[in-house]
Amino acid sequence: MSAAAATSVALPDDTLLTVEHLTMRFGGLVAVEEVTFEAKRRQITGVIGPNGAGKTTLFNCITGFYKPTTGRLSLHRDDGPPLLLEQMDGYLIGQKARVARTFQNIRLFPGMSALENLMVAQHNKLMRASGFTFLGLIGMPGYRRAEAEAKEKAVRWLERLGMVNLADDPAGSLPYGAQRRLEIARAMCTDPVLLCLDEPAAGLNPRESAELNHLLLEIRDQIGIGILLIEHDMSVVMGISDHIVVLDYGRKIADGTPTEIQRDPAVIRAYLGEEEKDDR
Amino acid sequence: MDWFPYFLQQLINGLTLGSVYGLIAIGYTMVYGIIGMVNFAHGDVYMIGAFQAMIMLLICGALGISWVPAILLLMLIVSVVLTAAYGWTVERIAYRPLRGSSRLAPLISAIGMSVLLENYVQLVQGPRPKPVEPLIRGGFQLMGGGADNSFVVQLGYMQIVIVMITIILMGAFAMAIGNTSLGRQQRACEQDMKMASLLGVNVDRTISLTFVLGAALAAVAGMMVTLYYGNNDFFMGFVAGIKAFTAAVLGGIGSLPGAMLGGILIGLIEAFWSAYFSAEYKDVAAFSILVLVLIFRPTGLLGRPEVEKV
Predict the structure, then answer these.
(1) Contact, B65 vs B71, CB < 8 A?
(2) From CA B120, how far away is CA B124, in angstroms rounded?
């Protein structure tokens, strides 16, 4: 219940991401229709819904994989006007807007070591420090310092996840749970303001899943960024979300705290079917 | 031991030639690795490099610069910078606009670019081969040539320069790809371009830099060939390019050490074939290797088998 308590302390100007009237059509298929919601800083916003509800499409719009058909996605910053994500080039969403994400089917760089995966995520800083490599090649001290800092940060994350001994293993050969954690760490190494996680608990056993909850709460409380979380595992979503958005057939059917969502008749209908033909 | 001096001489010639192929092959293999296309214009970029080096050599002559290291350095800098600019431009105007279209489109565009570069040089430089005075003459006489009039084994200074420069460049290159931020970025783009872009990697710029680096290495190869054979013409990039491509395929396209190994092997095969069988059919030997590799070991010597992407 500590999660629910956090909702009430969040300030109104803490809005991080505003999604307004977002619609995504693929030919005749409407995957997301007129979805509007907000995600706040220092909060975990869960996005749930039955299969095919449009959750991943929503993520793909936010992270620039798809250009939404209509609608507006604004990312609010402390300094300067909000960034309109639907108008930005793919790589700028990561570089400038600092939105990071993970995937339902893990997308690490399988041939690179765990450490290198975390270093790639920090390359923007390194490229600047290395004078676009040419200074770096002749071993400028500034570059070496930046490289050492990047490595230190990567190692800190590996320690946090208890994977230091796996640092030099190719990411593709790590155990499944470790790959999941590494992908989150890699996203965190980009210094994001918004972290989008697509089913991070899929395929994890109950113990790993509990560790994941702990990690996400730590990221929320200690680093203070906003998290957007797609998850099927209800124990994860209900346990750690401050706020939940429910999608069904591309539309938002409910929006509220976990306790409100659990009681919402529209949500119960979407998940369990009409009350008359309750066949549980 | 009668056969040994002759054999040794072919080994030296083959290694020299192979170094040149290896340098060109890196350009093919890197571009293939990152965007999965064969840059058929790469051989002509190498030809451009040879011409830039030759022009700079003549300018040095006209300006009265005669200190050899200074001439070499000027040739190297001018040829590398200008050829890299060509490489960047080719990518920018012929390949980038086609990214995301079918796999065939950039391939055809590359062939068009190759024809364009050849005809452009033919037009501005004339169709006749251009002889170049050797800058570095002489060498060591390793064996023979005594009273018994046995076979003379020569190791030219220029051959030493070529092999040394190639070793240094390949070493530096392997370091750069393995240990710098740019190299990591390149490998990341190679493995998952979309994901790299999500992490904020500027994919377009990384691809441009790949072309620039490939062209720079081809320019060095062109400069060395200009000084070694001293016979440049607008068509020289065609056969050299296809052989370097063969080298890249033999080593395993997409693999850097593979390109180096393949280059050396193709150089050796060509030298030995010319020496022991028939110099006329040396190209046939090299391209038969391409056919055999594609049939029996399509992933090449050091290539990884293609993994189905999910």
Answers:
(1) yes
(2) 6
Question: Is the complex ipTM higher than 0.85?
Answer: no
Closest CA to A93 of A120, A59, A116, A118: A59
**Rounded to whole angstroms, how far apart are CA atoms A132 and B106?**
27
Distance CA A4, CA A40 (A): 14
- Tens of pLDDT, residue by residue over A185-231, are 999 988 888 999 998 888 888 888 888 888 899 888 888 889 999 98
Q: Cα separation of B253 and B262, whole Å?
A: 10
Interacting residues of A225 by C-beta distance below 8 A, sequence separation 6+: A41, A42, A192, A193, A194, A195, A219
Residue A139's pLDDT band (cuts 50, 70, 90): low
Q: Which residues of B touch A186 (CB under 8 A)?
A: 199
> What is the length of chain A?
280
Tokens 């124990």 label which residue?
Answer: A235
List the 168-197 stretch of B: residues with Cβ below 8 A of A.
172, 176, 180-182, 184-185, 187-188, 191-192, 194-197
The share of chain A scoring above pLDDT 70, in percent, equals: 87
Show the tokens assigned to B272. Answer: 């030995």
- The answer to whether B141 contacts chain A (CB < 8 Å) is no
- CB–CB contact B172 A137 (8 Å): yes
Which residues, other chains included, contact A68 with Cβ-Cβ below 8 Å and sequence gap of 6+?
A22, A23, A24, A32, A61, A86
pLDDT of residue A272: 73
- The token duo for A133 is 């490599």
What distances in angstroms separate CA B137 from CA A44, B158, B163, B253, one per listed residue? Answer: 73, 7, 16, 36
- At B198, list the tokens: 């999500």
8 A C-beta contact, residue B35 and residue B109? no
Q: What is the third-level CATH fold of A1-98+194-280?
A: Rossmann fold (3.40.50)
Q: What is the DSSP secondary structure assignment for residue A259, as one 8-state letter?
A: H
Q: Give pLDDT tens digits for B17-40.
A: 999 999 999 999 999 988 888 999
Report, as an integer, the average pLDDT of A32-54. Answer: 88
Within 13 A of A173's CA, how many CA atoms are on the CB side? 8
| Residue B271: predicted pLDDT | 93
Cβ burial, residue B289 (10 Å; 0-12/13-18/19+): buried
Position A130 pLDDT exceeds 70: no
Count chain A–chain B contacts defined by CB atoms under 8 A. 87
Residue A85 contacts residue A124 (beta carbons within 8 Å): no
Closest CA relative to residue A234, chosen from A195, A266, A271: A271
Is residue B236 within 8 A of residue B50, CB to CB? The reply is yes
Report yes or no: B267 and B19 within 8 Å, Cβ to Cβ.
Answer: yes
Cα(A71)–Cα(B259) distance, integer angstroms: 49
Q: Are A127 and B180 a contacting pair at CB < 8 A?
A: no
Rounded CA separation B217/A29 (Å): 50
| Domain boundaries defined on chain A | 1-98+194-280, 110-191
Closest to B221 in 3D by CA, of B46, B34, B30, B43: B46
**pTM confidence score:** 0.84
